[in-house]
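Entry 14: structure prediction run for Pentatricopeptide repeat-containing protein, mitochondrial. Input pasted below.
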Amino acid sequence: KSSGIEPNHVTFVGVLTACSHVRMVEEGLKMYAIMETEYGIAPTKEHCSCMVDLLARAGHLTEAEKFIDEMKLEPDVVVWKTLLSACRTQGNVDLAQKAAENILRIDPCNSTAHVLL
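Run finished. Output tokens:
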């Protein structure tokens, strides 16, 4: 803000990705919230996928699942793959099953769901 440069949707994808990779969950949640309220940028599926990654990488799989369930946009394969990958890493078989089922519902020929399970 202090630089006078207005961020766009790509800026927020970068910021959310950075927060995810360094596990700055609270900062990422804050950035996601102000994206729309302060900058008028409506969340895209890219932003939502970043948020799922942010929560899941930090071990907050339940919160990531809740985020998906409450998304304004219809979750796509990328969102579900993000969750599935984190479930695999963290050993959450039940949630992995849900993610895989949703991937296959959207794209029945998707082999990633089978491989990650």
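Notes: Residues 9-116 form a domain with the Serine Threonine Protein Phosphatase 5, Tetratricopeptide repeat fold (CATH 1.25.40.10). Will compare against the previous run tomorrow.
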